[in-house]
Design goal:
The protein is mainly alpha-helical and 247 residues long. It has one domain. Helices cover 78% and strands 0% of the residues. It is built from eight helices and no strands. The longest helix has 61 residues. The protein is rod-shaped and about 100 Å long. It is found in: Cell membrane; Membrane. Its main location: membrane. This is Biopolymer transport protein. Belongs to the exbB/tolQ family.
Length: 247
């Protein structure tokens, strides 16, 4: 059998399958297409936000140690990621005081969380309702089979198989859509969590950097910077209160 013949038979079987499954399968098909679209869009967004912030963090830290707030803001603006936006928000508000900088970073963190996790709840909802839609299609199919059985004196297997096919196809379709949406949501959430980890680390280290910058301006601290940035998610931020003051 030629490839064209195989494809023709396969195409006919697909259309027969969709026709036998009833209208609810079309709803599941639409949901599956929406899931593919949403996953592609969110994956593209997260890919752009996943830039390594280490170099920018180092430059921002170096600028702050030179008491150069405008330079630190420019360096932070180069990193168009949640971590860079949080750094920029804190540096921009630093002249108004430590509390103002922390408040600005907290507000920026809320906005970045919305951007990172946008669409994930939709995928979770689809993963929950797709099996229910499949189950509803199953009920419709079984009802159709029972109606055929009750209305015909001697129902044939072909008559009964229509409703049974609708039931099984919808069940399978709902499960397939739910599984795809579930795994896609978990994969995207895992990637968003890694990006959010950089942003959270930025919110932790910047107040310590600003405190050290002010102490250097006052002449209390000199020499090597005390609060260096090393991106280790599990490493605690060294508190400036632990640093020895100049006698």
């Amino acid at each position: 059998m030629s490839l064209l013949a195989v494809l023709t038979v396969w195409e006919m079987n697909i259309f027969d399958l969709l026709r036998a499954a009833g209208p609810l399968l079309w709803v599941l098909v639409a949901l599956s297409l929406f899931v593919v679209y949403l996953v592609a869009v969110r994956a593209q967004v997260l890919r752009k936000l996943a830039s390594d912030p280490t170099l920018t963090f180092t430059r921002v830290h170096a600028a702050l140690m030179q008491q150069d707030l405008p330079g630190a803001a420019r360096e932070a603006a180069r990193l168009a990621t949640p971590a860079g936006n949080i750094l920029r928000a804190g540096v921009d508000r630093a002249p108004a005081g430590q509390e103002a900088a922390i408040s600005a970073m907290n507000e920026a963190m809320l906005l970045e969380d919305q951007r990172l996790y946008n669409g994930l709840s939709t995928l979770g909802t689809i993963a929950q309702i797709a099996p229910l839609l499949g189950l509803l299609g199953t009920v419709f199919g079984m009802v159709r089979s029972f109606l055929v059985f009750s209305s015909a004196a001697n129902p044939t297997p072909a008559q009964l198989s229509t409703g049974i096919s609708e039931a099984l196809i919808n069940t399978a379709g709902g499960l397939v859509v739910a599984i795809i949406a579930y795994f896609a949501r978990n994969a995207l959430r895992s990637r968003a969590d890694r990006i959010a980890l950089h942003a959270e680390r930025a919110r932790e280290v910047l107040p310590a950097w600003l405190t050290e910058m002010r102490l250097r301006q006052q002449g209390v601290l000199t020499g090597t910077p005390l609060v260096m940035y090393e991106f280790d998610a599990n490493a605690p931020v060294k508190s400036i209160s632990e640093a020895p003051a100049r006698a």
